[in-house]
Structure formats: structure tokens, C-alpha cells
Amino acid sequence: MVLAQLPVAKIFWLGVRQAARPISKVATSFAERSDGFQSCCVAVSRLVPSNRVSVPREEAVQSGCAILGEAVVFGVSGAVLAYEYVKQKEAERAKEDTLQRKASEERMALRWELRRLEERLHQQGEALEALRKVVDGKATPLTR
């Protein structure tokens, strides 16, 4: 019953976020075999203060791979969050546009109704004036 209440798109994006973990593992395994990535990890480990004089190369590579994996998961999650935010804002804007369009149409209908009533009032005023003239004896009644 709870799944029926969740939109399909949100379930899809949850799946995408969960798929980020295996993608992270693939990126990590590729990075572990890359000499350039290993050199980068060692250089970064030298910049980070440590109690040791130097961090062993293997430990630096493992730390770099862990950071890369978390960055992939965080990046995918952040992208999904940003997408959902933009999508929600677009939906709110569309709803507001619809409300404004509906209000504009209602105002237009009210203007037309007001014009129709003003014309009817003018016609009734003319008819009333004609009746007053008949009652006052200044005019002859209309004959058919």
C-alpha cells in the first residue's frame, strides 16, 4: 500500500542512487590499477598532516580509493537531489502559471458580464425614461 503512494520517478531515482555504489566499486578498482591515480594519492597524502613521517604507498592508495568511492556516491546523490529540486520548482511554476491563467480568464469573463449588465442597465434606463414621459403626458404611448 505504501508503494502505491510513492511516485514511480522517486523509486527510479532511489534505484539510481543505489546503483551508485557498484559504480563506485568499479571506479575504485580501476583507480587501484591506475599508476597515475596512485601517484596522485601519494602526492595528496604528503599534503595531509599525519603523525607519521610518511604514509605507505599502499595505504595512501586505499585512502584515495575510499575517497573516490564516496565522492561518486555523493555526486550521484547530489545530482539526483538537484534534479528533484529543479523538477519540483518547475511543477510549482507550472501550477502558478495555471492559476494565473485561470484567474485572468475569470477576470475576462467578469468584464464581459459587467459590459452586458451595463448595456442592459442603459436599455432599461431608456425604457424607464420613455415610461416617465408617457406618465407625465409629454408623449404618447407606443402602439403596436
TrEMBL record:
It holds the Pfam family OPA3. Residues 100-134 form a coiled coil. The keyword Acetylation does not apply. InterPro entries: OPA3-like. The keyword Coiled coil applies. Keywords: Coiled coil. It comes from the Eukaryota. Belongs to the OPA3 family. This is OPA3-like protein. It comes from Prorocentrum cordatum. The lineage of its organism: Eukaryota, Sar, Alveolata, Dinophyceae, Prorocentrales.
